[in-house]
Amino acid sequence: MSSGVDVRRRPGIWSYFSFTSGPRRRTSVSLPRNNAKDLFEKLDRHSGHKSSGSASFMNDIKVAGMNQGQRMRYLKAGGIIAFICLIFFFLAPKERLGGGMQITSCFPAGCPDSCVLIALPLDQGSFPSGDVASDPSVSTTSCTKSFSSNRPLTQYAIMIDAGSTGSRIHVYRFNNCGPTPELEDEVFKQTEKKEGGSGLSSYKEDAEGAAKSLDPLMEEAMEKVPDELKACTPVAVKATAGLRKLGPQLSDNILKAVRHRLETKYPFPVVSEASGGVEVMDGKDEGVYAWITANYLLGKIGGPDKTPTAAVLDLGGGSTQIVFQPTFKDSADGGMPAKLADGDHKYGLSFGGRDFTLYQHSYLGYGLMEARNNLHVVVINATYEENKTTGISSKAWLSQDVLNPCIAPGMRKEVEVHLGDSHPLGKSITVNMTGPRNGSPAQCRALAEKTLQKDAKCELNPCAFKGVHQPSLEKTFSREDVYLFSYFYDRTQPLGMPESFTLNELKELTNRVCHGEEMWDVFHSIEGALDELRDRPEHCLDLNFMLALLHTGYEMPIDREVKIAKKIKGNELGWCLGAR
Questions:
Q1: Is the pLDDT of residue 284 over 60?
Q2: Residue 396 gets which letter from DSSP?
Q3: Which residues, 6 or more positions from 334, have their beta carbon under 8 angstroms from its beta carbon?
Q4: Least reliable range by pLDDT among 95-104, 183-192, 206-215, 515-524
């Protein structure tokens, strides 16, 4: 049995939307199920067979024995009920008489994965001829009625990405004009940046403060989602590497506070705990959801065509992910396996009527902020050992500038370096790091490569870095698109890099940045580029780590073309849209 992970293992926000052309059965809580027996019901009404002859005979005797007074009482009661029904029929609003129906209300009904529509049922599905808009706020320019009788015309979903450096809200609006939901709009907002980060993990013991930090984001959702749809718009919160590193006790306290605030302050139904509505997301899910988001927006999945999919490489603050669909020859050739080996890296996914076998891995501790610290530790350790041999006091040198080849010439920065509990210099230190007299991009890249631990034991060949198995991109994914997200985009696009470039072009950019301002003349023609470089002394470090990660870590050829993106078709990239 495959050890790959099946993304269908539990419901979530995406279970609220159908990606099959056929109707999906809904449960209406306005009509009770016949689970309990009615003491005044005929005994054989819900049985698979009629009751015995003697019982039927006794029923006949009872009916025959009913006196005239009892008959009159039943007739009067029936008349009163019929009169009341007629009053309701003529006085109730009739927005869609004839072929349609009216949604009377919409609210969470205890459904574990999202919520259900409470509607007046008709003979054929919820919307026999397709749902139409009751007012402009719930209409769409794509069509006038929903494709399926079982779906409303428009739907909303809210996802909060609680990242290590800040939280971000995505308010998605879909229409159901076709057989699968179409994303037609997205509202995006993030928490304001502050020193030390504005993510949930930055609040540590202050769980209530962490929960309140999401209020500005939720107010955005309150403004954008129509009032009549708020009660059936599910919201979920997924935390990533920041809370993973915080530890179970502190992270659990924060998550409980977040859930309580969402449930008590806002009208949106929170996805249930059993379905992972407010949780620390597994790293492998983070990468796969980003893969779903990108390929869905690119039109590579979710439609009838079986087009090749794109690889997704996401660089966050605390972790980095790689996800792609490798292709193997039918038979082993020159040591190449015939299929993707079993293991935690194997992810089975069913989406839009297609089955995918994906390779994925999430490297905790290799996001950009963590990578900076990893490299600073290498510099501090080397400087510490050098000063020990020269007889300088073990800590006296910490008051002096520490030379770092990953800082551009003429630049300087105060850095807090986290060394670990057992380090002889202490758990953490704060030093001033300064760049060398001349740019040293090659030496910086060597330090970045050292943090990747390429020489770690590889249990299952081939391996990328840190002993982690990965099929060769050159052999199993040589022609398809490779998309780089998050910090990959944030550090290259402001410096004028196009949407598509080779790793060799990234190397040339890195060399120019690392040589300092004397080589920055080209950036005068790029708006904001010089401000970006002058405000960020570690830009040389960031680019060198990215180059080392892609070329040395993932072993992508230096002439391989990659693409950077922040949005596709106006929608933010990342894992949120793909989260289930």
A1: yes
A2: G
A3: none
A4: 95-104
Retrieve residue 183's tokens.
Answer: 């994303």
Beta strand 319-324 pairing with 311-315: antiparallel
Residue 363 CA, distance from chain mean position: 17
Across the beta sheet with 182-190, the strand order is: 182-190, 167-175, 154-162, 235-239, 278-280
Contact between 317 and 370 under an 8 Å Cβ cutoff? The reply is yes
CB-count burial class (<10 Å; 0-12, 13-18, 19+) for 559 = exposed
The contacts of residue 14 (CB under 8 Å, 6+ apart) are 578, 579, 580
Distance between CA 161 and CA 154 in Å, rounded?
23
Q: Which residue has the higher pLDDT, 574 or 531?
A: 531
Residue 320 near residue 314, CB atoms below 8 Å: yes
Determine the Cα–Cα distance for residues 318 and 312; give it in Å rounded to an integer: 17
Q: What type of residue is 443?
A: Q
The beta-carbon contacts of 26-29 under 8 Å, at least 24 apart in sequence, are 26/116, 26/117, 26/126, 26/150, 27/109, 27/111, 27/116, 28/116, 28/117, 28/118, 28/119, 28/121, 28/126, 29/109, 29/110, 29/116, 29/118
pLDDT tens digits, 378-433:
999 999 988 887 766 668 889 899 999 999 999 999 999 999 989 999 999 999 99
- Would you please indicate which residues are annotated as catalytic (active-site) residues? 286
pLDDT score at 85: 47
Residue 75 CA, distance from chain mean position: 60
pTM here is 0.69
**Residue located via tokens 């016949």:** 34
What pLDDT shows up at residue 577? 65
User: Please, what is the Cα angle at 197 between 193 and 201, to 5 degrees?
Assistant: 135
CB 574 within 8 A of CB 485: yes
The type of residue at 400 is Q
Q: Which residue has the higher pLDDT, 429 or 23?
A: 429
Please name the residue that has the structure tokens 């659990």: 252
Question: Rounded to an integer, what distance in angstroms lies between the CA atom of residue 425 and that of residue 377?
Answer: 11
3-state DSSP percent of the chain in helix, strand and coil, to 5:
35, 20, 45
CB atoms closer than 10 angstroms to residue 28: 14
Q: What angle do CA 189, 190, 195 make, to 5 degrees?
A: 160
User: Domains along the chain?
Assistant: 7-18+104-281 (3.30.420.40), 286-366+453-572 (3.30.420.150), 368-448 (no CATH)
Poorest-confidence range of 286-300, 407-421, 452-466? 286-300
**Please, are residues 574 and 493 in contact by the beta-carbon 8 Å criterion?**
no
One-letter identity of residue 393: S
Cα–Cα distances in angstroms (integers) from residue 156 to residues 223, 260, 279, 417, in the given order: 13, 22, 21, 43
Joined together, the tokens standing for residue 491 give 């550090």
